[in-house]
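User: Some background: our group keeps a shared notebook of sequences we're curious about, and every so often someone picks one and asks for a predicted structure to add to the entry. Today it's my turn. The entry only has the sequence so far, pasted here. Could you supply the structure so I can complete it?
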Amino acid sequence: MITACGPVGEWFWEPAPLAAPSDGGALWALGLLSGVAGVMESCGLVTGEGTGSVVLADRADMGAPLFARRGVPPGAGLVDAAGRADAVGLLPGRLLRLSLALAGEWREAGAVRRAERLFTLRVEVWGEGAVLVGLSAYADAWLAVDLRGRPQPETGAENAPRLAAALARICGVTGSPVDPGDPTRYADPTAEGFADQGEAGAEHDDAWGMFEVPARWRRLMALLPGGPGGRDHEATTELPVRYARVRCGERVLGFLWASADGAAGYEPRSAAGDAAFGAGAVWLARLRSARLRGLGAPEALDGLLGASADGGPDGGPDGSVIEDVAWGAASLDALEELSGRS
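Assistant: Of course. Here's the predicted structure to add to the notebook entry:
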């Protein structure tokens, strides 16, 4: 199974409009969000862990929210944030958006595996009363063909029924039928999960490699001061690579790598979500600094083994550290796939 940073598929529901959204609309929306999350948890799709956000804005100026709380753990923190949003007021012309990025689990050959962001849920409420619930999935465990176009019928058969059950039960919680989102480059959502890809497989033989890997690199470059440029090592190689895991506590965020021909870079672990990219920007900046000091790619990697983001033993603001052992991968493609599978 492979995880992606963008949705593999999405589904939507439109509950009955709120008669008076200005009267506690955010707390009401949080109750609905929690109810849908509870369905996902009861179906064994999510663990209940994750982060949430509450954003209230004028629709004419969504870039400048009237109220925003992000990165809030589920529970009392979200209740407090929703109450504060209600104090600002959900008036006509405004949009309230509550969301949850949820850790989840899938089954592969009988083993239970986990991703820090397997699904996201959101509830949007317009100041005039309209309500929309959205669910996004970020992995291919529900498909008979993986994101690289290879058959995985057993994995799909192990996991698809639980997703189908959750979609049906969410219809009961929301009081509305499910509306599958548009087909993605990976798959075609349906009311029961995903359409059977059949013998033709996905639209592309390797959509993950064709789209996901370049998109991840662009996102990393956008976070790196100065963006891409001649100050970096080469970003691709045909040779085997050596890599070290980037960790935050017990969680693997990504892989810092180098090859003998002077290429080096960082592969974010897709299942780790946004934290994988924040850590990647830190360590790519370290690689850039090493190159400016005249170090080759293998030497730069060796010099970072055992390092932490702030130079101390416990990591920097993002908590990331580099393991002090380097491993080998047969190719950069193999490491990229590891970053999607792990």
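Suggested note for the entry: The radius of gyration is 22 Å. Residues 153-174 form the longest helix (22 residues).
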